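Students often ask why we bother predicting the structure of a whole assembly rather than each chain alone. The short answer is interfaces. A chain on its own may look different once its partners are present, and contacts between molecules only exist in the joint model. In this exercise we take four input lines together and write out one structure for the complete complex. Read the inputs first and try to guess which parts will touch.
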Amino acid sequence: MNIGDVSSRSGLPAKTIRYYEDIGLIKPHRSANGYRCFAETDLHKLAFLGRARALGFTIEDCRTLMALYEDESRASADVKQLALEHLAKIEAKIADLQAMHDTLGELVKGCAGDSRPDCPILRDLSGEG
Amino acid sequence: MNIGDVSSRSGLPAKTIRYYEDIGLIKPHRSANGYRCFAETDLHKLAFLGRARALGFTIEDCRTLMALYEDESRASADVKQLALEHLAKIEAKIADLQAMHDTLGELVKGCAGDSRPDCPILRDLSGEG
DNA sequence: TATGAGGGTTCCAGTCAGGGGAAGGTCAAG
DNA sequence: CTTGACCTTCCCCTGACTGGAACCCTCATA
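Now the answer. The structure tokens for the assembled complex follow.
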């Protein structure tokens, strides 16, 4: 398989696939003409990576997850721990965003949104002046 | 005021303040020795920027907000629109993160987390194989 | 046989919002 | 006079790609 095929079958852009090779996540063979030559296992790995990235895991997490996946003697505890740490980071981000959302929502609610200059949003940003 | 004073009074790192000057958000004067020389208005602007950034506005949004703030003849509608657009982006991010959280949470719940290799998280990532 | 389309390759630069650190100038205190 | 705390500019680094330039390969068509 050439990179275009793997790209459409995995849903990942060709650029991303080349990047993943660059950083050592996959190691496709090369054809005589220099083209990358992907096996089914490469495609499978890329799909794995795509799903892990979609769950928000960092590239380094993905590297670890792949290693665990390929390690038949892994302990599921290791996978779970990684997932729990990631879950905690997601929760922290949600909490941050929620706080912004609540604050900004309040300010927006108080803003007339008309042609006059008076605005509680700017008043708040300027330090209640 | 030197940059150290402004830094501690605004809560922004000196690096950040220099960066904000670099991209034209503030224009402090210079003393004879080449040091930046901040007026109270600069400090006020930096505090404004710090609060806007804390609400998650991008630097470009901050630039617009500052311009609106300094424009006495602004329409609060313009401020409100910017804020509403930002609010929508925050909501979209929260929704994304929440979806990740829910999916990953389900997978984690099903994972024994013991010394055995069997793991629903990896099974899901590998495509249910 | 030329040529054009549509693959593929490498490498460089840019994104966003700064952070880290080097090399060097300035200032007040001891 | 020296020490230490400031300040300056400069350049590289981050994550996870994305865009583009310049060039090569293959196949179909005129």
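Check your guess against this: The mean pLDDT of chain A is 97.
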